[in-house]
Structures are given as structure tokens and as C-alpha cells.
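Objective 1b. Sequence-to-structure analysis of ZFY21 protein.
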Amino acid sequence: MSGGDAKKLVRSPSGLRMVPEHRAARSPFGLDEPPWVPDKECPRCMQCDTKFDFITRKHHCRRCGKCFCDKCCSKKVPLPRMCFVDPVRQCAECALVSQKETEFYDKQLKVLMNGATFFVTLGTSDKSELMVCRLSNNQRYLVLDGDSHYEIEIIQISTVQILTEGFTPGGGNTRAIGMILQYKVPGSDEVTQMKFTAGEDFNCNKKLSAAWLAAMHKVS
């Protein structure tokens, strides 16, 4: 993993982007830049139908590539999934989506990369191992460290089930206490299961573990 984390600055019609040097090292959360609708194919705003002329100029949304007038495409919003260095112009609909994703990048993703401690049970084993679980810096692997070491590629994960407690028939708050993860072993169709359980002892920060599980739920 460590050899492919280098990044480079590139310029596109949409703006400056800081991207991995090797495409294979790109984040599984990343998006490709969309092709822009050609100018000749959009004589009018694709939102409000205003006709473009010398005064009313056309702008392309950096997320969807469609063509809009300034009024319908005036917001400049961060777009971390496309690795833009600065906020970029987006239509109102795309801006809302990007704003929600930015919250994920600013909060949940950092929680996952900082890691948390769990008791991890592999397959049908009745033995568990205390391990620190975190997302790798390039966001491509779930890394588990204890007496054993595992690296699970995010794109190989097929199922994430968050385990909770505290639900009552009449309603009430629930608390994340663990997770069941299923993933494919590279090079085969075999599916492996891992169970993560938040520790009860004083060495395990249960609040941190719950936050990590909540962030993992956002990913799934």
C-alpha cells in the first residue's frame, strides 16, 4: 500500500486537482470528471430554459457536466470526491449532494482513518482478538492490527451489518455495539466473515468505537 500513495497536481477544464500518481491507488470513494455537454448542444439553460446570448453566459456544472446560466449554477462548493483543490462551480442540485459528501469527508472519513479498538472474530471461530481497526491513508483498505494483521480492500466488501442494542418496542435510542463484515478474498469467490464487537474493558473507548461504527455505516 505504501508505494502507491504519491499524488500529483493536474489541471483540467474544471480546475486544479490533486490526484494519485497511479490510477490503481485512487480512493474507492472517488468520482471521474464528467464530460461537458458541448456548447453547441445547449442553446438554453438546462434548468430554467433561459436562452444564452452575449449577456447571459453559459456555465458547466463540474459534477454533472450539464450547461446552466449563472443564476442556476452560481454556487462554488468543495468536491473532494473529484480531488479538486478549491471549491468548484456546481448547479444547485449537485451542490446539495456535494455539501453532504463534504461533511462525510470532514467528519466520518477522519474518524475511520483515526481508527478504533474492537474484539474481532474471524469466520465461525469462537475466539476473538483485540485489534485496532482503521481505514488506510489512501482510503482503499480496512487495516486491522493486533497479534494478527489483516488488510481488506474496500471494494471487496460485500456486506456491512451494524449491530445495535437499546431498541424497545415503544421506541428509544439505539447504540452501535458491533459490526458483521463480509468480504471476498482476492482471486477467489470465497466470502469471509468478520465480527467486530466493541470492548467492555477500560482500555477500549466505547464512545470512539460507536463513532467509528456510525461512520462505517455511512460508508455502506
